[in-house]
Specification:
This protein is an alpha+beta fold. It is built from four helices and seven strands; from the N terminus they run αββαβαβββαβ. The longest helix is centred in the last third of the chain and has 11 residues.
Length: 139
């Protein structure tokens, strides 16, 4: 059974966020709150976009593209940042996680093409590769 079918069997109600379907609720909000506060809950974020940056220049490159100091990140650490254009205007917000050999970018549903295109536009002679990892991280 896939994750969507699992949610459907639990009476999930779905919504679309930027063209990507995700669970909104299961019907009784108070019952959900009680269940999570007295037992445990899982927040399904599989609808979010995910890319990895690999290559020797990944940290230096991304540091010049976002609003946070990603060069300080050690393996296993992460931070919140905004991906900005040359005028400082935000194009997407994202979470950046430093892994052993890559940077994992986690961002809003439906933003994958836009974020990929934005990053690709500025990779000129940098040793940076973009890898789509949605099916590996989170699905």
């Amino acid at each position: 059974m896939d994750l969507r079918e699992y949610h459907r069997e639990l009476s999930a109600q779905f919504v679309s966020i930027n063209g990507v379907e995700t669970v909104a609720r299961y019907g009784d909000t108070l019952a959900e709150q009680i269940a999570v506060s007295q037992q445990a809950g899982v927040l399904d974020l599989s609808c979010r976009g995910r890319l990895c940056l690999t290559g020797a220049d990944r940290l230096r490159f991304l540091h010049g593209q976002v609003t946070n100091d990603v060069k300080k990140l050690q393996a296993g650490e992460g931070c919140y940042a905004a991906l900005v254009n040359s005028k400082g205007r935000m194009e997407s917000d994202l979470n950046v996680y430093s892994l052993d050999e890559e940077l994992l970018l986690d961002f809003e549903p439906g933003m994958g093409e836009k974020v990929t295109a934005r990053i690709e536009r500025y990779i000129v002679s940098d040793d940076v590769e973009i890898v789509a990892v949605g099916s590996i991280y989170g699905f």
